[in-house]
């Protein structure tokens, strides 16, 4: 019954049953709709939780307001870390969404491990908070009439983009870290454009809601809420937004209980996730990530992104007659593995940090890339294109920036943890560069072309 709904506009004196042109369109239509509340969730009285209200919504909102920008910025940084200037952005051409190019740093070596670990880790931890926030405003989804003015209609459409955007980003992100390449479309393209839709809606939403959020947060004290037991839990004051239940049921949980439940959920997700990048014993708790598990002991027993078999590497092509080709100088240089091993060797402890959020730090041994550039006759390379023996796929080549070639820890690794690389980790030789996104640490290297400009 429409009269039960406190979010109704003030009752009109007119009783026209259908919209009339005298009313003007669409005002008349809205008034007509307002008298015809559909049943079920469209009845404000159907929503009875005594905890719903602007304060609780704003607490969840504040957490999202603080943490989401970190997730957004670290996500955009991941795009930048792929070096889009070399056509390695994913998606490649993003038109006017292109951000200014800059050289991704090589120091600290754990930079991408940090930014991408935050992106994936915080993104996952926010899921319970996003769900709680949606729960807290769900009656508004069923507000009736659907809109009372053109401005309100626009606001509700922007909420579709906001809610749809974040759910889409969560869904694509989670699927990608669980089973890559599950989509019929490119994960990167979808996640990238979805992100911009969400960013636009998020900025708009914050601009409109910030004053309400501040006011609502001031309406109750967090400290006293945290001291309030179930027995003393009362609904919030009736609000102009239609969040507080007009006919609240008795509470079954205190506000602090609800906050603990949601916060505990986020912490639990964090515990089940963080091990994939923290490593050590914590890796055992990274249950949410199939690629985060401990793979046993031994120098080569760490995370493998794609095995040699999966990459269609013919073991014969990595055998004794394998040689590395250095291109781009006055004449090509060819080096056998024995010749590479006879050059000055360096070791560096560096992480492989995957876009999926996991990382794995190992001690690598091999030849400096800058020594190879020197040998090729390009001592001051502007870039280097690394090609793999792997024939197809988008992971079989990568272009490195000048600072990534010249860093003293940037290696063409022959060894890891003092043993020869295993075939799965890129034998006979692979690239390892500080702070480089995992995907560009090319395995089964066939050639490197150093470019002076
Ligand atoms: N040729 C080739 N190199 C590759 C890959 C690949 O599939 N093919 N995977 C990349 C990705 S996505 C990551 S995260 C790292 C993983 O290295 P690892 O398998 O030795 O841990 O290798 C990178 N190098
Ligand atoms: Mo990766």
UniProtKB/TrEMBL annotation:
What superkingdom does the record give? Bacteria
Q: Report the PANTHER family cross-referenced here.
A: BLL0505 PROTEIN, PROTEIN-METHIONINE-SULFOXIDE REDUCTASE
Q: Which Pfam families match?
A: Oxidored_molyb
What stretches pass through the bilayer? 55-82, 118-138, 159-179, 185-208, 258-278
Single GO MF descriptor: oxidoreductase activity
Region Disordered: list its residue ranges. Answer: 1-23
Descriptive protein name: Molybdopterin-dependent oxidoreductase
